[in-house]
Write a sequence for this structure.
């Protein structure tokens, strides 16, 4: 089975999307694994993370349990964890730093 590869320009360069069921399933599996590890990091910091696929792509919805209105989504795409607007939070190899950044964004300032 030959997979078509589509290079898509975006704000920080180019990322690759593979068109093919097997490639997408493997890519989604890697993303879910990274999001599960990030969820564990965020849980240990007192956040309330939930993985969802409601938008078609796996996403981690993280909220501050003390102020549920403070919530944000993050996505895993290849080597990066991204905000929903495609800005990079950090690399999937540095999930501790990514969790720190997300926790800081969701902090109440108290």
């Amino acid at each position: 089975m030959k997979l078509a590869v589509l290079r898509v320009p975006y704000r920080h360069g180019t990322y690759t999307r593979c068109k093919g069921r097997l490639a997408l399933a493997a890519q989604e599996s890697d993303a879910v694994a990274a999001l599960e590890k990030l969820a564990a990091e965020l849980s240990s910091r007192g956040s309330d993370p939930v993985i969802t696929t409601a938008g078609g792509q796996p996403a981690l919805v993280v909220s501050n349990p003390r102020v549920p209105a403070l919530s944000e989504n993050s996505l895993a795409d290849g080597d990066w964890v991204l905000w929903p607007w495609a800005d990079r939070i950090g690399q999937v190899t540095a999930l501790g730093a990514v969790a720190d950044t997300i926790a800081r964004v969701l902090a109440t300032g108290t």
Remarks:
- The helical segments are 21-44, 95-105.
- The chain has a mean pLDDT of 78.
